[in-house]
Design goal:
The chain is α/β, with parallel strands linked by helices. About 35% of the residues lie in helices and about 20% in strands. It is built from 10 helices and 8 strands. Helix 1 links the parallel strand 3 and strand 4.
Amino acid sequence: MAGRVVQAAGRDIAVLEAGSGDPLIYLHGYADVHGVAGEFLPFHHALANGRQLIAPAHPGCNGSSELSDGHSPEDYVFHFLEFFDALGLKAFDLVGHCAGGWLAAEIAVRHPEKVNRLGLIGASGLFISGEHIGDVFMHSQPERGVHYTSLRHMLFSSSDAELALRYYPDGRGDIDEEVRRYEMLRFGSFVGFKPPYFYNRTLIDRLYRAAMPSLVVWGSEDHMVPLAHAEAYAARLPGAGGAVVLEGAGHAVHLEAPDAAAEAFSAFLAP
């Protein structure tokens, strides 16, 4: 794994990379690399098998510059288009988790010619009546000043899951991880702070434009983005089959079930 800073349109974009081969862009979520972890986790290393994994940190996260003007999904699409231009990338595979999955879907519907294959993991972005995305901002406030029980429950299969306690401990944790958690919440407030949170009402009716092969992976115990969203993505993306739902895993399904998630992506991304 290597880290570097890429300049795009005058902004610094912190990037982690691994592997070699055809490019695969990975856009992160909350419980994820750049969102809390400072390095690739087992799932990411599996993605890098046989391809070049390129994972930029979102604006304001883990060393990337802020996006100073505009905070609509369109602004972030242009941000990443400028990043792709800086790397000289014409076409690539694209995988995203949570808010990163939302932005991956936004890129795919606007510029399908750039995306060879699209992978979504617990992706936000859709408005589905009666199936609202959870309020991560409310749950990010520590209970009694120190407890993150409800936030862990939202992002993982349960509040006492091993990885939940590792990355979102009660009280003060590792300072670098705390800073990344704060930065990711701040980024999320720019792109998704509007009840019922983290959606673009027009996206669902544009998914037909993303006709490339697609894979939708979800945790059965996702307490942030309901399973109805997985079903909607799988039904509306022309190149997707049914959603792959991994039993017992939560919103951070690729962290909690890395082998099963990697197996699904390995078959999907095979040459």
